[in-house]
Amino acid sequence: MEFRQLRYFVRVVNLGSMGRAAAELGVGTSALSQQISRLETELSARLLQRTKTGVRPTGAGLAFFRQAQLALRHADQAIEVAQHARLSGQVSIGMPPSVAGVLGLPFTRAMCDRYPDVRLRLVESLSGSLNAMLSSRQIDLAVLYDVTFSQHFAVTRLVTERLYLIGSEQSSAPHSEGSLSLADLHSTPLILPSESHRLRALINEAFGRIGRKPNVVAEIDGLAMLMEAVGAGLGFTIQPGAALTRHAKGSFVAHEIVEQDLVRSSHVASLSDDELSPAGLAARIVLVDTARKVTARGEWAGASLID
Q1: Which part of the chain is the HTH lysR-type domain (predicted)?
Q2: What is the CA radius of gyration of the chain?
Q3: CATH of domain 89-158+266-305
Q4: Which among 72, 105, 265, 269 counts the fewest CB atoms within 10 Å?
Q5: Are the CB atoms for 141 and 133 separated by under 8 Å?
Q6: Between the CA of residue 65 and those of 92, 136, 274, what are the distances in Å?
Q7: Residue 65 pLDDT > 80, yes or no?
Q8: What CATH number belongs to 3-83?
Q9: Full DSSP string of 121-174
């Protein structure tokens, strides 16, 4: 098997056409078809299915396509490393919005200082979306909240975060002097993410343990818009302290909630060590190191390191 065959196959799948792929690659359609046939013979599997409009991958072809993309990316990065005297390449990292507000800039600075030739691609999205992107090899590593250790990821426990009742400066929380319990919040109007979010599940479970339900007046699946609604006085929210990182100090007030089990755990999940490129391995080390330093300095509100 040759890398040329892998490149040919990936291009054909991406374009869905043998003719278009041949034109882009600068080879004859017949020669391209022969290379794909040799690849299928070597693998003893049909990779492409011919249709009236072009070609599409079979089940085996789709599985091979994903791994071929990964192999080609690593090969390209290996060439870059060999051509330069220091670590180079590209690495893709995903962070949820609240974590990106705390870690995004410090991590980027640390990577630029340590590995100036590594190109970073930062993706800010919801934890569930990042999980799916990691599973499909669209990103190399991510900070995730809900990680099942049976998944084929390398997982490093990072921090636990306490949750707070957050309201605008003008809002009046129940028993605003001192800490609150969930029982104090049974009638407090809450603006929360929808049921599909792990954070919402944590909050629902915590209320359920005291035999109550949260008084949800609105569901907003976007941290920026959710905090805007809270800032406008439309209700309160329950979020980790990191949710306030990107907002002007003094615009919001965070009240501690006394329930000790109302915490969220964050993990760094990545492709396995065998699959990660040298740049990816370096980025994972820097990400964990940055998170620990930020937490130790008290810059990640409500976060505690997990040993």
Answers
A1: 1-58
A2: 24
A3: 3.40.190.10
A4: 105
A5: no
A6: 19, 11, 18
A7: yes
A8: 1.10.10.10
A9: EEEE--HHHHHHHHHTTSSSEEEESS--TTSSSEEEEEEEEEEEEEEETT---T
In angstroms, rounded to a whole number, what is the distance separating the alpha carbons of residues 262 and 275? 35
> Are 36 and 45 contacting, i.e. CB atoms less than 8 angstroms apart?
no
DSSP state of 175: T
> In sequence order, what are the residues at sequence separation of 6 or more whose Cβ sits closer than 8 angstroms to the Cβ of residue 34?
none
* 8 A C-beta contact, residue 21 and residue 59: no
Return mean pLDDT, the chain.
Answer: 86
Which of 58-72, 163-177, 219-233 shows the lowest per-residue confidence on average (mean pLDDT)?
163-177
Entry pTM? 0.67
CATH assignment, 160-263 = 3.40.190.10
**pLDDT tens track for 102-153:** 999 999 999 999 999 899 999 998 888 898 899 888 999 999 986 765 567 8
Dihedral sign for Cα 274, 277, 282, 286, please: negative
